[in-house]
Amino acid sequence: MKSAVKYKVPQSEPFVGKEELHNLKKVIKNKWLTEGPFSLEFLEIVKKFTGAKYAVLANNGTLALFLGMLSFGIKEGDEVIVPDFTFCASASSIAFTGAKPVFVDIDGGNLNIDVKKIEKTITKKTKAIMPVHIYGQSADMDPIVKLAKKYHLRIIEDAAESYGVFYKGKHTGTIGDIGVISFFADKSVTSGEGAVILTNDSLLHDKLKYLRNQGRLQSGNFIHPYLGMNFRMTDLQCAVGVAQLKKFEKIKKSRLNIYKTYRSFLKNAPGLSFMEESHYSNFIPFRVVIRVKNLDKLIHHLEDNGIQTRGVFYPLHQQPCFSYLGYHAGDFPVTNKVRSEGLCLPVFPSLAKSQIEYLCEKIIEHTKKIN
Ligand SMILES: *Cc1c(COP(=O)(O)O)cnc(C)c1O
């Protein structure tokens, strides 16, 4: 395998520098490494920006989703609905409670859960729906909220990739009962590892606070009213996170500019299409997803030319780890098609225009040859 540094165009690179370093030095000087002043500031900024009433930290998006499941009381025998097209963690957070993840096909345009296909998967065992705001665009939440009301279901939004993404004016992750934003190294804003769980429900907030901190509210107190675990972050991570959140407008602008450049350079590439934009959501590209014919050949062509490639998500129903669920490929025509045609293009802020130009030139060479 080629190492990322050797690529002329890598897939992702965090946008970190002197602001992050400055904050990190402060933490070292303070000698307070666990959750502290930066953790509080990090949460405050996220709360203010998203409009969520309550927010708690978690050590990463995967465990934050799992924590959300625990706060709902999801357990063996329950079912939770999730799109078939997402990062594996969305579904593994369900499976780890003992509950069964139930997959739903997606919309071929915006690649989010196909809301028309949700209702027929609801059974007596269904306890929650987990929409995922994929690649930086919101799922269509109104129909999901309606279904949740009708069948008394919880909603946990996987907003791991959608910091700064709003659905009809509401920040993703604040529409359902709980929302999870990830700050992993390749997300739009990062703390290395880390996550925030949003909720407007004070009871859920209380549960989350106990569950994440060993079943008590205050560290240093050895009386534990409930059973809990350690889902905490560190002030080192939050110091990086605070610096990132403060330059979010810059990050957003840069990602959108790169996206615009791709659209203009690839506008006439034969047989190539982009992930569609939805009218009810803004779009902050987590990746730019294109669809092409003969994807395997394109991947070889790009890798041979020093460009690091990344396919789109692998449908959950085909994941070896979920083979026990017994799904068939024919049940999910859209995710299978998207997987066979979809490619992620990099959109990190330090990507140079010359790199984008070079990448687009190589893509056009391919599309001209096969069309
Ligand atoms: C990144 C991601 C996660 C997991 O977040 P981590 O912080 O990496 O654990 C979950 N769901 C989606 C859709 C993601 O992109």
Task: Give a description of the structure.
There is one protein chain. With 371 residues, the protein is of the alpha/beta class. It folds into two domains: 229 residues, Aspartate Aminotransferase, domain 2; 123 residues, Aspartate Aminotransferase, domain 1, CATH 3.90.1150.10. Helix content is 37%, strand content 13%. The chain contains eleven helices and 13 strands. Strands 1-9-8-5-4-2-3 form a seven-stranded mixed β-sheet, sandwiched between helices. It has a four-stranded antiparallel β-sheet with strand order 10-11-13-12. Helix 3 packs parallel to helix 4. The chain is globular and about 70 Å long.
Q: TL;DR of this structure?
A:
37% of the residues lie in helices and 13% in strands.
Straight-line distance between termini:
30 Å
For this structure, the CATH topology of the largest domain is: Aspartate Aminotransferase, domain 2
Q: Give the bound compounds.
A: pyridoxal-5'-phosphate
Structure annotation, total helices: 11
Strand order of the largest sheet: 1-9-8-5-4-2-3
